[in-house]
Design a protein that fits this description.
By secondary structure, this protein is an alpha+beta fold. The chain has a single domain, classed as 2,3-Dihydroxybiphenyl 1,2-Dioxygenase, domain 1 (Roll). An eight-stranded mixed beta sheet has the order 2-3-4-1-5-8-7-6, with helices on one face. It has an eight-stranded mixed beta sheet with strand order 10-11-12-9-13-16-15-14. Strand 7 and strand 8 form a beta hairpin. The protein starts with a helix and ends in a 19-residue tail after the last strand.
Length: 309
């Protein structure tokens, strides 16, 4: 009798195992890879990213007409020629690093998300694929077989892109994708007023970089007709981590690299971190941000560890 009772248990175990095999596990999502933006003037943009921010220019294997500006061995800003139909938009996509692009593609597909038929692989062995989040933002996931450049440029004002920000209308819809499917975790939220949420930070599940929802524009999706290109450039942005924004600001001043549009001086943000905003020639914001808060944040506490240098 005891032997007969074991048979159903074995069958149940087999069924559970078969079900687990049908849904791939989500591989690691480790941090920010890059942000891709458009430029009206290639020469003006090159000067900004190489001279002002100190990044290193490199060819772009995805688009021979574009360029990559590296801050570390694997993090960069991709600058692409502005398409004819860009309008006021200057953001092409944001990108995160994953431990296995193919497994993540298969995982999202198994969860019912629209994914491409295969990943793309370049000559270096780097693999990536693109999807669209619920707001229509293009999101790329990248796996690099090796460092993309030999070493970080010494002239870079920072060696760590700690977050990317995008215009968001529907926080709940975005959460269903980033939290529900991908496992992103809450980090901080706040607003210009204590009772209003304008910014929501969600860290990658397997690291401390984050995406920042820039909640604006009312209901719907896309870029509101009433939103200016300048405002959009503030929202769609990237942040460079600093141990001291004040020191980075003084370094830019002392080396005569502080050119173009920028804040008058560093300030403390509502999250309690010092920050300093700079803008490329097309208005995309680069935010120098302290890795750690020096004052108490408004609105909510930090609920995950800060990124490191």
């Amino acid at each position: 009798m005891r032997f007969k009772m074991l048979i159903p248990a074995v069958l149940i175990t087999a069924v559970v195992s078969a079900g687990a095999q049908q849904t791939p596990e989500r591989p690691g999502i480790l941090g920010v890879s890059h942000i891709s933006v458009y430029a009206a003037s290639v020469s003006a943009t090159e000067h900004y990213y190489t001279h002002v921010l100190g990044a290193m220019k490199s060819p772009d294997p995805e688009n021979p007409k574009g360029a990559r500006y590296f801050f570390s061995e694997n993090q960069f800003v991709e600058v692409l020629p502005m398409p004819a139909n860009a309008g006021k938009n200057r953001l092409d996509h944001i990108a995160f690093t994953t431990s296995d692009a193919e497994k993540l593609r298969a995982y999202l597909g198994a969860k019912g998300w629209h994914v491409p038929a295969a990943v793309t692989t370049d000559k270096s062995g780097t693999r990536w694929f693109d999807v669209f989040d619920p707001e229509g933002n293009r999101v790329q996931f990248v796996t690099s077989a090796k460092p993309l450049i030999p070493s970080a440029p010494k002239s870079a004002i920072s060696r760590h892109i700690i977050h990317v920000g995008v215009l968001v209308h529907d926080r709940a819809a975005e959460d269903a994708f980033y939290d529900g499917l991908l496992g992103f975790k809450p980090y901080w939220y706040g607003g210009m007023q204590d009772t209003k949420v304008d910014w929501v930070s969600k860290q990658v599940p397997d690291g401390h970089d984050w995406i920042e929802y820039m909640v604006a524009g009312g209901p719907g999706a896309g870029i509101p007709d009433s939103m200016s290109q300048q405002t959009l450039g503030v929202l769609n942005h990237f942040a460079l981590g600093e141990t001291s924004v004040d020191s980075a600001f003084k370094s830019l001043q002392a080396s005569n690299r502080l050119e173009g549009r920028h804040d008058p001086a560093p300030k403390i943000g509502r999250d309690g971190k010092q920050q300093f905003n700079m803008y490329d020639p097309d208005g995309t914001r680069a935010e120098l941000m302290n890795l750690h808060a020096t004052e108490k944040p408004c609105c909510s506490p930090f609920t995950a560890p800060d990124p490191s240098e």
